[in-house]
Amino acid sequence: MGLLLLLTYTLLSSWRMVDAQRSFTIRNITLTIEPSTDVTRDTNVTLRCKAIISSSGPEALSRKYAIYKDSYLIYNKTSNTSQDLLYPLPEVRVSNIGEYKCKITIKDKEMTSEAEKLTVKGLSKPLLTFNKTVVSEQEVVTATCTAPGETGHLYFFFYKDSKEIQNYQVNSNQSEATFLFSSVGMHKIHCTYAVLVKTESFKSGESNSVSVSVKELSIKPVLEIYPQSKIYEGEKLNILCIIRELQPSSESIHLYLSQGTHLLSTGSIKVNHSMVALAKDPGDFECSLEIGNVIKVVTEKVSVTELFSAPTLTMSPAEVFQKEYMTLTCKSERFATERLNKEELTYTLEQATTSMTSSNTGVFPIKALQYDFNYTCVARAKGIMKRSETLTVRPKVSVSTPKMSVVGRAVLGQPFRIICQSDTGSLPINYTLLRDYSPLSTTSVKQPNQQAIFTVTINKPDEISRYMCEAKNSNKEGSLSKRLNAAVIVPLSHPTLTVIPKLSEISEGDDLYLICGINGTPPVTFKWYRVGNEQPLLTNTTNTNSTYYQIHKLSKEHSGIYYCEAVNHANNLVRSEKVTIDVQLALWKKALIAGFCLLLVLVLVVVCVLYFRSKRDAVPLYDGMEGRVANGTRGSVASLPTDISNRSSYSIPATV
């Protein structure tokens, strides 16, 4: 840690020593008010402080800025850049009126700009409020006068019936006043305010006038440049900054020779400087003399004729693909034929790692890389070197073999979309849809998020493999995709509902199978319905073209009308014909009924037989009894049944 601090201190000390050894002069400082010195209220104003410094080094010197308003410091800042200092005054008010100056200090030198006055017009309307507006005699009320949005030192004036009765100086935008009303009636109260910009004072009369004569110092700088005319690039310039008619003085004398903002050299009595003339350098030279607080400046303008122009680097062809050959041409369009032969110009092509030199043609055949690359061309002649602007070569990427895919699903007989896309390739890319090598349509893809989409319709499943796609982004032959390979969904058709067992053989207790079958591409969603029910009896999705709904142990309640529906990814709903199911009695029930009926018949037959037999046997017995009576046989009539119609129901005993 101690070693690090020591190194840091050493570096800072070295930097300060180098900075202290640098020569510089403050040439000028100005303050401007933007957008104007006369603005209206609420304008955003910027104070720009611009300093022109001539320094012997490339880095900007540390400087301290100070901004004054009416001789009062309002802002200061230390900067290490040569950029202008900007001080904003947002939404200016009348209180911002004043004279502004900017001061710069670098080491022991300082300079202050001329004063610029800012004028702001417009004040907000004052607002007067009372804590109450209906009062009694001798009652005290409070009034508040507000200047909306105003800043600075304000003077508020309160008026009663147009007569000023109170005034207050405050540092805010509002003031309060109390009123005591002793007279009955209506009173008109209002207020005004004033913004104090500068303290007003009473001026006296003018004093006597005294004339002061200022004599110019005889000492003055002289700037001499050789040669004085027809200067070409590469020639040597001899510049002399000297003091003529030097008089003895107690003040220290300093000479500064500058070119533009670059300080070339310094001295006390004479400064000599030699340099190579370049057309790109500013042609304004300045010899500045500083003696005490007096600064005298003499300037000269030098016009340098360009020996040759800065080269331009071009590429042919304008577009090139990776690993293709191209030609880079470096050329200076103009050169001074009276001083330079064309053969004296040489060109060099510079890359990041290598450089190529050409004598005078400036033509470089090279092979394009696989990535973006920067090239720079350098032209040289008679010790002058000029660079071209950087040319960035962005090799295009040849389009890769495209791939085809279907957006969503391909449904037979319905329009569907096909995407043709390459994984790599520089835009724009032209995609062409082919059907059996015959072009159908072309789409140009120019944006990274754009896609080549084609809409087609097929009527047979195998037609989808007839489509191909070609991708092309150059004059070469395009790249052809494989044939489109995608599943084709055939819409459902010919729905059937098969019943097992046969309709005529359906009985109670049987198991019923309702088999729904279709033609089309699975998966298929089947639904079985019974007329009278809105909800399906069963919903089943399967990868086959048929499936069934089973009803166990049929009963008479299962009798009814049934049908099925089917749908697949083609979203066409098909419905079968309706089937009427009539559940018949079970076989054992039929046998039981038949047996019962047969038994009933047998009983009736037996009854009839017995009846007839009993009737047949009863008639001879009666006749025999009557004979016996006639013959005097013993018996009683009274003992015979009186109801003859029912004699068959009785059993008549034999006479012993």
Automatic annotation (TrEMBL):
It comes from the Eukaryota. Coiled coil: none annotated. GO terms for cellular component: external side of plasma membrane. It comes from Mastacembelus armatus. GO terms for biological process: cell surface receptor signaling pathway; immune response. One of its GO terms (molecular function) is transmembrane signaling receptor activity. Residues 221-303, 402-485, 495-580 form the Ig-like domain. This is Platelet endothelial cell adhesion molecule-like. Residues 1-20 form the signal peptide. InterPro entries: Ig-like_dom, Ig-like_dom_sf, Ig-like_fold, Ig_Fc_receptor, Ig_sub, Ig_sub2, IL-40-like_Ig. Pfam families: Ig_2, Ig_3, Ig_C17orf99. Keywords: Disulfide bond, Glycoprotein, Membrane, Signal, Transmembrane, Transmembrane helix. The chain crosses the membrane at residues 591-612.
